[in-house]
Amino acid sequence: MKVAILGGSGKTGRAVGAALAQAGVATRPLGRAAFDDLPAALAGADAVHVIAPNLHPDEPAYVATVLAAATGVGVGRVSYHSVASPYVPAMPHHLGKAESEDLVRRSGLDWTILQPCAYLQNLLPGLRTGTLDVPYSVDTLFGMVDLRDVAAATAAVLTGAGHVGATYELGGPALVSVADVAAAAGTTARRIPAGADVHPWLRAMFDYYDAHGLPTGGVPLAALLGRRPASVADVLARELPAGRCCQP
Ligand SMILES: NC(=O)c1ccc[n+]([C@@H]2O[C@H](COP(=O)([O-])OP(=O)(O)OC[C@H]3O[C@@H](n4cnc5c(N)ncnc54)[C@H](OP(=O)(O)O)[C@@H]3O)[C@@H](O)[C@H]2O)c1
To answer: What is the set of domains in the chain, with CATH numbers?
Structure first.
Protein backbone atom coordinates (compact mmCIF):
# COMPACT_ATOMS: atom_id res chain seq x y z
CA MET A 1 0.00 0.00 0.00
CA LYS A 2 1.19 3.55 -0.83
CA VAL A 3 -0.20 6.61 0.94
CA ALA A 4 0.41 10.17 -0.26
CA ILE A 5 0.37 12.61 2.66
CA LEU A 6 -0.53 16.21 1.81
CA GLY A 7 1.14 18.37 4.43
CA GLY A 8 3.48 15.43 4.92
CA SER A 9 6.49 17.66 5.60
CA GLY A 10 4.77 19.39 8.55
CA LYS A 11 4.51 18.47 12.23
CA THR A 12 1.34 16.41 11.85
CA GLY A 13 2.35 14.94 8.51
CA ARG A 14 5.71 13.71 9.80
CA ALA A 15 3.98 11.96 12.71
CA VAL A 16 1.45 10.35 10.36
CA GLY A 17 4.25 9.26 8.03
CA ALA A 18 6.13 7.65 10.92
CA ALA A 19 3.01 5.79 12.09
CA LEU A 20 2.24 4.54 8.58
CA ALA A 21 5.85 3.45 8.09
CA GLN A 22 5.65 1.55 11.38
CA ALA A 23 2.57 -0.20 9.99
CA GLY A 24 4.61 -1.24 6.94
CA VAL A 25 3.01 1.28 4.55
CA ALA A 26 5.03 3.13 1.92
CA THR A 27 4.49 6.88 2.25
CA ARG A 28 4.88 9.85 -0.05
CA PRO A 29 5.18 13.02 2.06
CA LEU A 30 4.15 16.07 0.07
CA GLY A 31 4.65 19.76 0.84
CA ARG A 32 3.57 22.89 -1.00
CA ALA A 33 5.69 22.08 -4.07
CA ALA A 34 3.37 19.15 -4.83
CA PHE A 35 0.75 21.71 -5.90
CA ASP A 36 2.90 22.56 -8.94
CA ASP A 37 1.59 19.29 -10.43
CA LEU A 38 -0.75 17.64 -7.97
CA PRO A 39 -2.03 14.87 -10.29
CA ALA A 40 1.58 13.75 -10.88
CA ALA A 41 2.29 13.91 -7.14
CA LEU A 42 -0.72 11.70 -6.34
CA ALA A 43 -0.54 9.27 -9.26
CA GLY A 44 0.01 5.66 -8.24
CA ALA A 45 -0.97 6.17 -4.60
CA ASP A 46 -3.63 3.91 -3.10
CA ALA A 47 -4.80 6.57 -0.66
CA VAL A 48 -4.26 10.22 0.14
CA HIS A 49 -4.24 11.67 3.64
CA VAL A 50 -5.13 15.36 3.51
CA ILE A 51 -3.67 17.78 6.05
CA ALA A 52 -4.15 21.47 5.31
CA PRO A 53 -1.58 24.06 6.39
CA ASN A 54 -2.36 25.92 9.61
CA LEU A 55 -4.77 28.84 9.03
CA HIS A 56 -4.97 28.29 5.28
CA PRO A 57 -6.94 31.30 3.97
CA ASP A 58 -9.28 29.00 1.99
CA GLU A 59 -9.13 25.44 3.32
CA PRO A 60 -12.19 24.26 1.35
CA ALA A 61 -10.48 25.36 -1.89
CA TYR A 62 -7.28 23.53 -0.82
CA VAL A 63 -9.26 20.36 -0.05
CA ALA A 64 -11.34 20.64 -3.24
CA THR A 65 -8.14 20.85 -5.30
CA VAL A 66 -6.78 17.71 -3.66
CA LEU A 67 -10.08 15.81 -4.07
CA ALA A 68 -10.28 16.73 -7.76
CA ALA A 69 -6.69 15.66 -8.40
CA ALA A 70 -7.14 12.39 -6.49
CA THR A 71 -10.32 11.63 -8.44
CA GLY A 72 -8.61 12.49 -11.72
CA VAL A 73 -5.74 10.04 -11.22
CA GLY A 74 -7.90 7.28 -9.69
CA VAL A 75 -6.85 7.49 -6.04
CA GLY A 76 -10.01 6.04 -4.52
CA ARG A 77 -9.35 6.40 -0.78
CA VAL A 78 -9.06 9.63 1.19
CA SER A 79 -8.70 10.48 4.85
CA TYR A 80 -9.03 14.08 5.99
CA HIS A 81 -7.36 15.65 9.02
CA SER A 82 -10.06 17.95 10.39
CA VAL A 83 -10.36 19.22 13.96
CA ALA A 84 -12.50 18.58 17.05
CA SER A 85 -15.74 20.61 16.94
CA PRO A 86 -15.32 21.84 13.36
CA TYR A 87 -18.76 23.44 13.25
CA VAL A 88 -18.15 26.43 15.49
CA PRO A 89 -19.40 29.61 13.83
CA ALA A 90 -17.23 31.72 16.17
CA MET A 91 -13.99 30.11 14.86
CA PRO A 92 -13.51 30.79 11.13
CA HIS A 93 -10.72 28.24 10.63
CA HIS A 94 -12.83 25.53 12.28
CA LEU A 95 -15.71 26.43 9.99
CA GLY A 96 -13.34 26.04 7.03
CA LYS A 97 -12.76 22.47 8.15
CA ALA A 98 -16.52 21.87 8.60
CA GLU A 99 -17.06 23.00 5.02
CA SER A 100 -14.13 20.83 3.87
CA GLU A 101 -15.63 17.81 5.65
CA ASP A 102 -18.77 18.30 3.56
CA LEU A 103 -16.66 18.29 0.38
CA VAL A 104 -14.91 15.09 1.48
CA ARG A 105 -18.23 13.37 2.23
CA ARG A 106 -19.61 14.33 -1.17
CA SER A 107 -16.39 13.55 -3.09
CA GLY A 108 -17.41 10.10 -4.31
CA LEU A 109 -14.17 8.73 -2.82
CA ASP A 110 -13.98 6.23 0.04
CA TRP A 111 -13.54 8.69 2.89
CA THR A 112 -12.73 8.81 6.58
CA ILE A 113 -12.60 12.00 8.66
CA LEU A 114 -10.47 12.47 11.77
CA GLN A 115 -11.28 15.26 14.23
CA PRO A 116 -8.35 15.65 16.64
CA CYS A 117 -8.39 17.93 19.66
CA ALA A 118 -5.37 20.15 20.43
CA TYR A 119 -2.13 18.18 20.67
CA LEU A 120 -0.37 17.96 24.04
CA GLN A 121 2.80 18.59 22.01
CA ASN A 122 1.68 22.23 21.52
CA LEU A 123 2.47 22.86 25.21
CA LEU A 124 5.91 21.22 25.25
CA PRO A 125 7.98 24.26 24.16
CA GLY A 126 6.59 26.27 27.09
CA LEU A 127 7.07 23.40 29.50
CA ARG A 128 10.66 22.93 28.31
CA THR A 129 11.48 26.52 29.27
CA GLY A 130 9.48 26.29 32.48
CA THR A 131 7.08 29.07 31.43
CA LEU A 132 3.67 27.85 30.34
CA ASP A 133 1.96 31.04 29.18
CA VAL A 134 -1.22 30.86 27.11
CA PRO A 135 -3.52 33.64 25.88
CA TYR A 136 -6.71 32.04 27.26
CA SER A 137 -8.02 30.61 30.50
CA VAL A 138 -5.71 28.02 32.06
CA ASP A 139 -8.77 26.37 33.66
CA THR A 140 -11.10 25.52 30.76
CA LEU A 141 -11.14 21.88 29.68
CA PHE A 142 -9.73 20.20 26.57
CA GLY A 143 -9.51 16.63 25.34
CA MET A 144 -5.81 17.22 24.72
CA VAL A 145 -4.33 14.37 22.79
CA ASP A 146 -0.92 12.89 22.02
CA LEU A 147 -0.03 13.64 18.39
CA ARG A 148 1.59 10.19 18.18
CA ASP A 149 -1.77 8.62 19.07
CA VAL A 150 -3.53 10.75 16.44
CA ALA A 151 -0.98 9.52 13.90
CA ALA A 152 -1.38 5.90 14.99
CA ALA A 153 -5.17 6.23 14.66
CA THR A 154 -4.71 7.63 11.15
CA ALA A 155 -2.59 4.63 10.22
CA ALA A 156 -5.25 2.35 11.74
CA VAL A 157 -8.07 3.78 9.64
CA LEU A 158 -6.03 3.63 6.44
CA THR A 159 -4.82 0.08 6.94
CA GLY A 160 -7.83 -1.49 8.68
CA ALA A 161 -11.27 -2.44 7.41
CA GLY A 162 -14.56 -0.78 8.27
CA HIS A 163 -13.56 2.88 8.42
CA VAL A 164 -15.03 4.11 5.13
CA GLY A 165 -17.79 6.63 5.84
CA ALA A 166 -16.64 7.15 9.44
CA THR A 167 -15.95 10.40 11.30
CA TYR A 168 -13.91 9.99 14.48
CA GLU A 169 -13.53 12.57 17.20
CA LEU A 170 -10.02 12.12 18.65
CA GLY A 171 -9.63 13.30 22.24
CA GLY A 172 -7.21 12.04 24.85
CA PRO A 173 -8.21 9.78 27.76
CA ALA A 174 -9.35 12.60 30.08
CA LEU A 175 -10.46 16.21 29.91
CA VAL A 176 -7.65 18.43 31.21
CA SER A 177 -6.90 22.12 31.54
CA VAL A 178 -3.61 23.84 30.76
CA ALA A 179 -3.21 24.28 34.53
CA ASP A 180 -3.58 20.49 34.96
CA VAL A 181 -0.83 19.87 32.38
CA ALA A 182 1.47 22.40 34.05
CA ALA A 183 0.84 20.84 37.46
CA ALA A 184 1.61 17.38 36.09
CA ALA A 185 4.96 18.79 34.89
CA GLY A 186 5.65 20.37 38.28
CA THR A 187 5.06 23.97 37.26
CA THR A 188 2.27 26.49 36.89
CA ALA A 189 0.53 28.03 33.89
CA ARG A 190 -0.25 31.71 33.39
CA ARG A 191 -2.78 33.43 31.22
CA ILE A 192 -1.18 36.24 29.23
CA PRO A 193 -2.76 38.72 26.78
CA ALA A 194 -2.68 37.74 23.10
CA GLY A 195 -0.13 39.76 21.10
CA ALA A 196 -1.48 42.74 19.14
CA ASP A 197 -0.41 41.18 15.83
CA VAL A 198 -2.04 37.78 16.44
CA HIS A 199 -4.02 36.43 13.46
CA PRO A 200 -7.70 37.33 13.94
CA TRP A 201 -8.72 33.68 13.54
CA LEU A 202 -6.37 32.72 16.38
CA ARG A 203 -7.76 35.55 18.51
CA ALA A 204 -11.25 34.13 17.86
CA MET A 205 -9.99 30.69 18.85
CA PHE A 206 -8.44 32.01 22.07
CA ASP A 207 -11.74 33.74 22.94
CA TYR A 208 -13.62 30.51 22.34
CA TYR A 209 -11.10 28.48 24.38
CA ASP A 210 -11.37 31.08 27.11
CA ALA A 211 -15.11 30.59 27.44
CA HIS A 212 -15.57 26.94 26.49
CA GLY A 213 -12.25 25.09 26.21
CA LEU A 214 -12.45 22.31 23.61
CA PRO A 215 -13.81 19.23 25.39
CA THR A 216 -13.44 16.20 23.12
CA GLY A 217 -14.40 12.59 23.76
CA GLY A 218 -11.73 9.92 24.15
CA VAL A 219 -13.67 6.72 23.38
CA PRO A 220 -13.14 6.61 19.57
CA LEU A 221 -9.36 7.03 19.89
CA ALA A 222 -9.08 4.19 22.39
CA ALA A 223 -11.19 2.00 20.10
CA LEU A 224 -9.05 2.78 17.05
CA LEU A 225 -5.80 2.16 18.92
CA GLY A 226 -7.04 -0.95 20.74
CA ARG A 227 -5.35 0.37 23.89
CA ARG A 228 -5.56 3.25 26.33
CA PRO A 229 -4.42 6.47 24.63
CA ALA A 230 -1.42 8.24 26.17
CA SER A 231 -2.24 10.34 29.25
CA VAL A 232 -0.67 13.69 30.08
CA ALA A 233 1.74 11.89 32.42
CA ASP A 234 2.70 9.41 29.68
CA VAL A 235 3.49 12.19 27.20
CA LEU A 236 5.45 14.24 29.75
CA ALA A 237 7.45 11.17 30.81
CA ARG A 238 8.34 10.53 27.18
CA GLU A 239 9.05 14.11 26.10
CA LEU A 240 10.53 15.92 29.12
CA PRO A 241 13.58 15.08 31.22
CA ALA A 242 12.24 12.81 33.98
CA GLY A 243 8.70 13.90 33.01
CA ARG A 244 9.19 17.30 34.70
CA CYS A 245 9.51 20.76 33.26
CA CYS A 246 12.88 22.51 33.36
CA GLN A 247 12.02 25.08 36.03
CA PRO A 248 14.31 24.91 39.06
N1 LIG B 1 -1.80 21.72 16.42
C2 LIG B 1 -2.92 21.14 16.83
O3 LIG B 1 -3.15 20.95 18.04
C4 LIG B 1 -3.95 20.68 15.82
C5 LIG B 1 -5.07 19.98 16.24
C6 LIG B 1 -6.02 19.57 15.30
C7 LIG B 1 -5.83 19.87 13.96
N8 LIG B 1 -4.73 20.56 13.58
C9 LIG B 1 -4.56 20.87 12.15
O10 LIG B 1 -3.42 20.21 11.66
C11 LIG B 1 -3.05 20.83 10.42
C12 LIG B 1 -1.55 20.83 10.21
O13 LIG B 1 -0.90 21.42 11.26
P14 LIG B 1 0.70 21.26 11.41
O15 LIG B 1 1.03 21.95 12.70
O16 LIG B 1 1.12 19.86 11.19
O17 LIG B 1 1.21 22.15 10.20
P18 LIG B 1 2.70 22.50 9.79
O19 LIG B 1 3.72 21.80 10.65
O20 LIG B 1 2.77 23.99 9.69
O21 LIG B 1 2.79 21.87 8.31
C22 LIG B 1 2.18 22.49 7.25
C23 LIG B 1 2.26 21.61 6.00
O24 LIG B 1 1.49 22.25 4.98
C25 LIG B 1 2.37 22.56 3.87
N26 LIG B 1 2.03 23.90 3.36
C27 LIG B 1 2.31 25.09 3.94
N28 LIG B 1 1.81 26.09 3.20
C29 LIG B 1 1.23 25.52 2.12
C30 LIG B 1 0.53 26.03 0.99
N31 LIG B 1 0.35 27.34 0.81
N32 LIG B 1 0.03 25.15 0.10
C33 LIG B 1 0.19 23.83 0.28
N34 LIG B 1 0.84 23.28 1.31
C35 LIG B 1 1.36 24.12 2.24
C36 LIG B 1 3.77 22.52 4.41
O37 LIG B 1 4.64 22.20 3.33
P38 LIG B 1 6.11 22.88 3.13
O39 LIG B 1 7.04 21.99 3.96
O40 LIG B 1 6.38 22.79 1.69
O41 LIG B 1 6.02 24.28 3.68
C42 LIG B 1 3.66 21.41 5.46
O43 LIG B 1 3.76 20.15 4.86
C44 LIG B 1 -3.73 22.21 10.42
O45 LIG B 1 -4.79 22.18 9.48
C46 LIG B 1 -4.29 22.32 11.83
O47 LIG B 1 -5.47 23.09 11.88
C48 LIG B 1 -3.78 20.95 14.46
So the answer is: 2-243 (3.40.50.720)
Enumerate residues 6+ apart whose C-beta is below 8 A from 214.
84, 85, 117, 118, 142, 143, 208
Tens digit of pLDDT for each residue in 104-113? 999 999 999 9
pLDDT digits (tens, 9 = 90+) for 165-186: 999 999 999 999 999 999 999 9
Q: Where are the beta strands (DSSP E) in the chain?
A: 2-6, 26-30, 47-50, 77-81, 110-116, 132-134, 166-170, 189-191
Q: How far is CA 53 from CA 23, 66, 202, 231, in A?
A: 25, 13, 14, 27
Q: What's the rounded Cα separation, in Å, for the pair 12 and 79?
A: 14
- Say yes or no: CB of residue 57 within 6 Å of ligand 1: no
* Closest-lying ligand 1 atom to the alpha carbon of residue 93: 47
Instruction: Find the 242 Cα to ligand 1 centroid distance in Å.
Output: 30
10 lines ligand 1 (CB under 6 A): yes
Give the distance (Å) from ligand 1 centre to CA of residue 247.
30
